[in-house]
Amino acid sequence: MKGRAVNKGLIVVAADVSMFGAVFTSLSASERNEVMLSWPGNNTWVLPNLGYFPGWITGDSDHVAVRLTASPALRALSAAVDGPLVSTSANPAGALPARHGFQVVNYFGPGLPRAVGQVDLHGRPSTIRQIGSDEIIRA
After folding, report:
1. Using CA atoms, how far apart are residues 67 and 131, in angstroms rounded to an integer?
2. Distance (Å, whole) CA 88 – CA 95
3. Secondary structure of the chain in HEC code, one letter for each residue
4. In terms of Cα–Cα distance, which of 101, 106, 98, 102 is closest to 123?
5. What is the pLDDT of residue 88?
6. Which residues of 49-75 are buried (b: 16+ CB within 10 A; e: fewer)?
7. For residue 96, which of 14, 25, 87, 102 sits 20 to 30 Å off, Cα-Cα?
8. Residues of the chain with pLDDT under 70
9. What is the model's pLDDT at position 92?
10. What is the pLDDT, as a whole number, of residue 117?
11. What is the pLDDT of residue 101?
12. What pTM does this model have?
């Protein structure tokens, strides 16, 4: 639907860090501490995947982008399914993210099921950081 290249990885969000399994527990204590100081919140971390998430999540990478979400709606949904969720903006690749329901309809048509929730109209995409380096992939 989005026309996103399959070789690009997706961001995975969760209500609880335990939902990231070995991806998180395999980090060193200092790396886990660094990540936890930024969560929950608008910080996504690129961590070694260790085969935990499938290739349709990681794309061409052996890493995975994960975030402990602060969004009450996403936290509730993740808790309800007892696992992590793929997080992506509601837009075709290269287009601006939809901020209103009518924009979702314009992008994808009226037949698409939609969730009801609040959108931060001034929100920004999460900052994406690479663990083990000072590299910021997206600010």
Report:
1. 12
2. 13
3. CCCCCCCCCCEEEECCHHHHCHHHHCCCHHHHHHHHHCCCCCEEEEEECCCCCCHHHHCCCCEEEEEECCCHHHHHHHHHHCCCEEECCCCCCCCCCCCCHHHHHHHHCCCCCCCCCCCCCCCCCCEEEECCCCCEEEC
4. 98
5. 84
6. beebbeeebbbeeebbbbbbbebeebb
7. 14
8. 114-119
9. 94
10. 60
11. 82
12. 0.90
pLDDT at 99: 84
CATH 3.90.870.10 at 11-89+120-138, yes or no: yes
The domain segmentation of the chain, as residue ranges, is: 11-89+120-138
Q: What is the model's pLDDT at position 67?
A: 98
What is the CB-side half-sphere exposure of residue 11 using CA atoms within 13 A?
20
